[in-house]
Amino acid sequence: MSHRIDWVRRAVCVSLVLLVAATWRLWFSPEPFPQIPLLRLAVDLPPTIDPIAAAVMLIAAAAAAAVRSIRLQTIALSTAAFSLVLLFVGDQHRLQPWAYQIFWMLIAIACCRAAVALRMIRILVVSIYLFSGISKLDYQFVYTIGRDFLGGLVGMTGQSIEGWPETLLVAATLSFPIGEIAIAVALVFARTRGAAVLAAIAMHLILFVLLGPLGLNHQPGVLIWNLVSATMVGLLFWKVSGGAGVDATQADKESEVPRAESQSHLSRPHLQPLAVVMLAAVSAAPLLEPFGFYDHWLAWGLYAPHNSRVRLLIDERSIERLPASLQRHAVPIAAGSSTRQVNLDRWSIDCLSVPIYPQSRFQAGVALAVLQQSQLASGFRLELQSASNRRDGQRTIQEIGNQDQLKLHLNRYTFNALPRR
Q1: Do residues 155 and 277 both lie within one domain?
Q2: pTM for the whole structure
Q3: 233 and 107 in one domain?
Q4: Do 276 and 331 reside in the same domain of the chain?
Q5: I need a surface site. Which of 41, 322, 339, 372 has the fewest CB within 10 A?
Q6: Residue 144, domain member (yes or no)
């Protein structure tokens, strides 16, 4: 069998190509959905940079998967990673969880010796399962998305959760995040690792069916990522034994010796310590999310709806001033009401085939772009909703009613929240 790291490299590169293809409008054709750069300096970047960077990224990923030369692999992997950075900076909407994960995998493989790269990728994957599970131990998940998941899963058996006792509903819903956390812990230990791999693969396949066209009908990128995750956990952890936790086994290390030796003058070993530090930091950084210092998706808050968000409300007389593609996503807040809620999330899915980036910073920037394009200096209400309390789901709400006030608010964020011009 080929070296494990080579299979992982090919899987990472092919996954990047497939997922970008499934969400191609996010990378190549942002119109009419606004772009919110990650850094203020990128607000004036010319739009022609984006499709060029995306094309270079895809070509580099395909080359990294195909070439045999270690030197060319390193160059191609580095090029793909650098292109992703440019694309992230140009629009933080592209910080999709799968794209963020793949970026760090590219860094590990490009900058580290094979055994070290495997070790750091394994740590990253354990972190994803762990913090994804922790993020769902939350009131909002239990009573919204989690309940939908439970109903969909039970419905696939021809049954219904109607009539279930509330205690049973809560316990059954909490089994989803508890299962993810159990997988993360079990992957660390040799004795439980095989069972954890099988459980993780089963979980992703169940999600693939549950979220697919016969279930909740989510976007293709979500379905592909579940298949990618099932494949990756098998490649990384299957038949990894011994007491080294998520570290590479002796067998892994021995099988990678030829590659490691051939990399001795090619893999830039002076970059390995920096890459290891960055990957370790990224794996631990989700600890900062509850304090507001790290973004929800980057902390692997997947299907965990406690994130901060905005709610844009306008009068029905202003609907015709909205972008044409957005008008159908403006719905009355109540029967007979003249106030419409502008559903920016549905607009994102409609335009780009991805959910909106789940931070109030980003969503407020999108709202500002819409208001500027529609020439609505006032006559709207923007509700800035904080992340919800994990115990009771409550949020604090700040209301903004004119563009000048909104711009002042957006300038307070550490990362950019202003739309790209």
Answers
A1: yes
A2: 0.92
A3: yes
A4: no
A5: 41
A6: yes
Same domain, 141 and 241: yes
* Angstrom distance (rounded) from CA 67 to CA 210: 37
Report the number of distinct structural domains present in the chain: 2
- Could you tell me if residue 19 is inside a domain? yes
pLDDT in tens, the chain (421 residues): 358 999 999 999 999 999 999 999 999 977 789 999 999 999 999 989 999 999 999 999 999 999 999 999 999 999 999 999 999 999 999 999 999 999 999 999 999 999 999 999 999 999 999 999 999 999 999 999 999 999 999 998 889 999 999 999 999 999 999 999 999 999 999 999 999 999 999 999 999 999 998 888 899 999 999 999 999 999 999 987 654 446 544 445 544 444 444 444 344 568 899 999 999 999 999 999 999 999 999 999 999 999 999 999 999 989 999 999 999 999 999 888 889 999 999 999 999 999 999 999 999 999 999 999 999 988 899 999 999 999 999 999 999 999 999 999 999 999 999 999 8
Same domain, 226 and 348: no
Does residue 404 lie in a domain region?
A: yes
Identify whether 208 is part of a domain: yes
Which residue, of 257, 291, 325, is where some domain finishes? 291
Residues 316 and 278 in one domain: no
Enclosing domain of residue 184: 4-23+96-291
Both 263 and 351 in one domain: the answer is: no
